[in-house]
Design a protein that fits this description.
Layout (H helix, E strand, L loop, with lengths): L2 H12 L4 H11 L19 H24 L2 H7 L4
Length: 85
């Protein structure tokens, strides 16, 4: 065994095992960015409300007619067959 590997094994053997620490490390490794403080030198971007309203509006154009069709389809055959089924 190489001296570096032996030192790592000795260090790992002396450390206390903590489930909470292990779970925290797993959670941090799944983040899309490292967990750290935001730099003070960079200013945050201003809110782009126009873009937000356009995005929500374009989703609403699909959502509301789609939900009306999904929830109202039993009423459409009733109107088509005029209650003669």
């Amino acid at each position: 065994m190489s001296p570096v590997t032996a030192q790592v094994v000795r260090t790992m053997g002396r450390r206390q095992f903590s489930i909470i620490r292990s779970l925290r490390q797993v959670g941090r490794s799944m983040e899309s960015h490292p967990f750290e403080r935001l730099p003070v030198s960079a200013k945050s971007a201003p809110a782009d409300w126009g873009r937000q309203f356009r995005r929500v509006g374009s989703q609403a154009v699909i959502f509301f007619p789609g939900m009306a069709l999904a929830l109202g389809w039993p009423y459409l055959p009733y109107l088509y067959y005029d209650g003669r089924v």
